[in-house]
Specification:
Layout: H1 5-23, H2 38-49, H3 51-66, H4 90-106, H5 113-142, H6 149-156, H7 158-184
Helix pairs in contact: 1-2, 1-3, 2-3, 2-4, 2-7, 3-4, 4-5, 5-6, 5-7
Length: about 190
């Protein structure tokens, strides 16, 4: 993939914003999958940067964390050992989320806000399609604890889906406004 200097700057900016968002407003205490504003920022990255650059910015964030920077939600907060965390599957899910949001939005021929919100919902589904099976597989087969797919859904989806939909709603509105302003300025 060839990136221009402008593209690299945009990717770096959103990777930085995602790192900052990962450190803000982490709630949930000692739960398997903590609540954060990270999905909100990932959806905005996909919407504003498009599928390729949005996914790249999230992939850079994941790489930064895997290289050891403390940007992930739970201890050890970074490093390669984080792949053994049950919530790790949501990180590749975020990459797919940004790509899906960007792909859906890039196919729009109109600028209705409901389409933006719909794109965010597609991204949320994409994230859970990777995060929940990873949670199930890791807990059941790596940790050897009894878990069904339904219990993985109860732990990793049900407590968070309503708030993720709210985040998607606001991300859709904000993305529409930002993209409209960028288009009027001739930046896009």
């Amino acid at each position: 993939m060839k990136l221009s200097v402008r593209d690299m700057t945009r990717v770096a900016l959103f990777s930085s914003l995602i790192c900052i968002a990962s450190l803000l407003l982490k709630f949930g205490g000692d739960v398997v999958v903590p609540f954060s504003v990270l999905p909100f920022m990932v959806m905005l990255a996909g919407a504003i940067l498009g599928p390729r650059l949005g996914a790249t910015s999230v992939a850079v964030y994941v790489l930064i964390g895997l290289l050891g920077a403390p940007v992930f939600a739970k201890p050890p907060f970074g490093g390669l050992t984080y792949i053994f965390q049950p919530s790790f599957g949501f990180l590749p899910g975020f990459i797919l989320m940004a790509y899906a949001v960007g792909k859906v939005i890039s196919g729009f021929d109109s600028v209705r806000v409901l389409k933006y919100i719909g794109a965010m919902l597609v991204g949320i589904i994409a994230m859970y399609l990777i995060g929940i099976p990873y949670l199930y597989i890791l807990v059941k087969f790596y940790f050897g604890k009894p878990m069904t797919m339904w219990s993985a859904i109860q732990v990793g989806l049900i407590p968070f889906i309503a708030l993720d939909i709210v985040k998607g709603f606001f991300a859709g509105i904000i993305a529409k406004v930002i993209l409209g302003r960028l288009a009027r300025q001739g930046i896009l």
